[in-house]
Design a protein that fits this description.
alpha+beta, Pemi-like Protein 1, Chain: D, two-stranded antiparallel ribbon, 7 strands
């Protein structure tokens, strides 16, 4: 089967590691392109991966938010699900730095 992304490589079955937000969920069977290395999981595998994400509390943590003002500072609002997952509290100390021009890294310290 020809890869639908690069349209040049061929798909072959392989077991590949899968992680979400840097957390390893396991190794799963997938069709992998020989050139671009794009991966496709079948419906059964995708359902298993989703169930593991939900069990670990990772499913649905990717949310959009807005930047607002508080006095002379800008404030980033964190969605409740993310706050609960990370067990973040008011006055917790963080380290914040840019990672390129379009990404902000926030680390709990």
């Amino acid at each position: 089967m020809i890869c639908p992304i690069c349209e040049k490589g061929t798909l072959h079955k392989e077991k590949v590691p899968y992680s979400v937000y840097g957390i390893k969920l396991g190794v799963f069977p997938a069709n992998v392109c020989s050139l671009c290395h794009e991966k496709w999981f079948d419906e059964t595998t995708s359902t298993k991966i989703e169930a593991i994400e939900k069990k670990k509390g990772l499913f649905g943590l990717n949310k959009t938010s807005k930047i607002s003002y508080s006095g002379n500072s800008l404030v980033v609002r964190l969605p409740e699900a993310l706050v609960k997952y990370l067990n973040i509290h008011k006055e917790d100390e963080i380290l914040i730095h840019p990672e390129g021009k379009n990404k902000i890294m926030v680390e709990l310290v």
